[in-house]
């Protein structure tokens, strides 16, 4: 209505039009004389119609600009409200995660599974995987949840390739899916997994979990059974490989970034030292793992 009122003031029919001096004055002729004449009725009406049309055409750009401003402001308000809403959901999700409320977290986030927000999607991937790990989850449900988690992680990565967490959870979910797709797929996926863990560390070198997971990757291929090594050599010219020393380096690095952040990191430090025949340091880290307070079901099962 305000826009219409502004336009109305610009148009001749929006107010009384009084003929000003310019209607009755002529222009200076070649002789410099001022020529005047009275306009006939038809001439006045014709000129007035042309005047109205010109004013209307002049007002259209103004109308378009005003409309653009109105729609832009409305879009900005909508976008701000949307961002605020996502932030609110993420805060609630992080609180539930820290509280160990796995099922409530999953129920919350699945309401937004069609979201295009990468931060929300990787959290949903994590929540789906956590539900799959619960002891009360059947094997059939677990498989469905693992593949569901991979889909969410993939979408998160597509939405934001600069998200270290999206890279991390995409790699984790690919690793989980490998348990259902055989040794060939598992070995082939190893290259992809390593690539995404390394990218996650590059994007956020202070994330202890990504560093720890890179350590697990190294540990896994350091202790790969001989028959799997043989299969890998048959399938790939240069199969993935690593050493216990390399794994140990990542586990220590994770501990330096965030001391005592995860019971499994302590446990694997102990196990890796055992593999390297250092019983003293193995005992030290295994005792730390044993004394670690159990926060999650995974901690209870591991300890």
Automatic annotation (TrEMBL):
The keyword Cytoplasm applies. The lineage of its organism: Eukaryota, Metazoa, Chordata, Craniata, Vertebrata. This is Regulator of microtubule dynamics protein 1. Signal peptide: none annotated. It is found in: Cytoplasm, Cytoskeleton, Spindle pole. InterPro entries: RMD1-3_a_helical_rpt, TPR-like_helical_dom_sf. Belongs to the RMDN family. Keywords: Cytoplasm, Cytoskeleton, Microtubule, Repeat, TPR repeat. Interacts with microtubules. Its main location: cytoplasm. GO terms for molecular function: microtubule binding. Pfam families: RMD1-3. Transmembrane segments: none annotated.
């Amino acid at each position: 209505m305000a826009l219409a009122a502004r336009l109305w003031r610009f148009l001749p029919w929006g107010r009384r039009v009084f003929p000003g001096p310019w209607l009755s004055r002529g222009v200076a002729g070649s002789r410099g004389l001022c020529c005047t004449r009275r306009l006939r009725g038809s001439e006045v009406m014709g000129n007035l119609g042309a005047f109205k049309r010109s004013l209307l055409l002049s007002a259209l750009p103004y109308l378009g600009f005003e409309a653009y401003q109105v729609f832009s402001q409305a879009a900005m308000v909508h976008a701000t409200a949307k961002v605020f809403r996502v932030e609110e959901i993420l805060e609630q999700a992080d609180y539930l995660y820290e509280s160990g409320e796995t099922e409530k977290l999953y129920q919350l986030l699945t309401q937004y599974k069609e979201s295009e927000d990468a931060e929300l999607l990787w959290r949903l991937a994590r929540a789906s995987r956590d539900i799959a790990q619960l002891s009360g989850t059947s094997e059939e449900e677990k498989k469905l949840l693992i593949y569901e988690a991979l889909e969410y992680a993939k979408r998160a990565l597509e939405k934001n390739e600069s998200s270290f967490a999206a890279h991390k959870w995409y790699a984790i979910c690919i690793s989980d899916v490998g348990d259902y797709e055989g040794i060939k797929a598992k070995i082939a996926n190893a290259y992809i997994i390593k690539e995404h863990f390394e990218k996650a560390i590059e994007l956020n070198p202070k994330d202890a979990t990504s560093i720890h997971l890179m350590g697990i990757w190294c540990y896994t291929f350091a202790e790969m059974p001989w028959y799997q090594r043989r299969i890998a050599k048959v399938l790939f010219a240069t199969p993935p490989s690593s050493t216990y020393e390399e794994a140990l380096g990542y586990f220590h690095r994770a501990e330096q970034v965030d001391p005592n952040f995860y019971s499994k990191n302590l446990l694997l430090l102990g196990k890796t030292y055992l593999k390297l025949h250092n019983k003293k340091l193995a005992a030290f880290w295994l005792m730390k793992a044993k004394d670690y307070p159990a926060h999650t079901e995974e901690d209870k099962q591991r300890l």
